[in-house]
Amino acid sequence: MLMMKKRSLALIIIVFMIISAVGTGAILLIMGISTNNFVVISKADYTDYQTIKSDYATLFDLEKYIHENYYIPVEDSALKEGMYKGLFMGIGDPYSSYLSKKEFDDIMTSSSGEFQGIGVTIAPDENGFINVISPIEDTPAERAGIKSGDKIVKVNDQEYSAATINDAVTAMRGEPGTKVTVAVLRQGDIVNYEIIRSNIILKSVKSEILEGNIGYIRITTFDEKTADEFKNHLRDLEIAKVKGIVLDLRDNPGGVVDASVAIADMLLGTGVITYTEDRAGNREYYKSDASKLSIPYVVLINKGSASASEILAGAIKDFKSAKLVGETTFGKGIIQRITPYGKDGGGIKLTVMQYFSPNGTVIHKKGVEPDIKVDILETDYVDGILPAANDKQLKKAIELLQ
């Protein structure tokens, strides 16, 4: 065993030499005389201590410097949380982060399909901006006119960036009926929106029958209930004997991967839907059974279609099960594992694997390309909303089915 003095590293060496010379009896003698100054540790613990002191000496010095010199007192807990967040920022992956208790709770709440706020899905981009993946359909953000590709730069006149994205989320969320101002950067111009927050209950699947007996299913996000909802809507359209279906994945930011896989299984025949690969090269394959949709269908995608939407779109394209119409998707081909961590109720969001289309196509940072490219222009929108009469992508899908 080693004797480690709490305040003086030099005496550690001296004590070690004494112990080596006179044996175990010296340990008991020194402990009896100076219990308050020494602790007994193993050689392995001592080695760990030396490693920690060497690797994190600068961090400890900076913490001490802040406590001694910052103009007002700083809470230890705030500094520690900043250290944890900084560790994840060092990865350079905008999708990985340490989560405070509130941030962790917010993520868990949003995946359940109900929350309070403006209804926008965002992600940090590689240029340090907060990128709008898409506004959620029929929410205050969409009605106000926020669009995919906008960069949120201010909330209530407070500037935010990719490094403070979780703070921006907190600022945009709030009690229904309260007002929040959001400034976005769009094509070089700053556009300001005054938005009234609301209670947002996500209805992730909607359907209707269009003119010409064409079925239309819109999936706005993938949450825990989406697969069951989709199954019910699809059955209703089959009972109605529609002659074709438009599956709309536009501005769908993704969500629960299992929901996307389950829907792919309803549409596709036997084969691989997607597969994931971790850092060690371990792969996990997600497969569909022999059953498949017998009705012809066309899929709509755009730059707001991301993550789980791209899994579904990529599988449909590789299976050649349907035509993809619209624009190249967002390009988020990585999966995060979200786990609780620590005693304070916080958590960890860490990218743990990458996913691929059935043919092995990389989706991350590339997206899924449409079979038929049809762009929606800024001039097609009226007061921030795309009227059906101007929806060239939907018109093309109907044309293909007719």
Can you put this structure into words, describing what you see?
- The protein has helices at residues 9-22, 24-33, 43-69, 76-89, 101-111, 140-144, 165-172, 226-239, 257-267, 308-319, 392-401; strands at residues 2-5, 38-41, 97-99, 114-117, 120-124, 130-135, 151-155, 158-159, 179-186, 189-196, 198-201, 205-210, 214-219, 244-248, 271-277, 283-288, 297-301, 323-326, 334-340, 347-356, 372-373.
- Helix 1 (9-22) packs across helix 2 (24-33), helix 8 packs parallel to helix 9 (257-267) and helix 9 runs parallel beside helix 10 (308-319).
- Helices cover 34% and strands 28% of the residues.
- The protein has three domains: 2-89, no CATH class; 115-200, PDZ domain (Pdz3 Domain, Roll), CATH 2.30.42; 203-401, 2-enoyl-CoA Hydratase, Chain A, domain 1.
- By secondary structure, the chain is α+β, with helices and mostly antiparallel strands.
- Strands 5, 6, 7, 8, 9 and 10 form a six-stranded antiparallel β-sheet that branches.
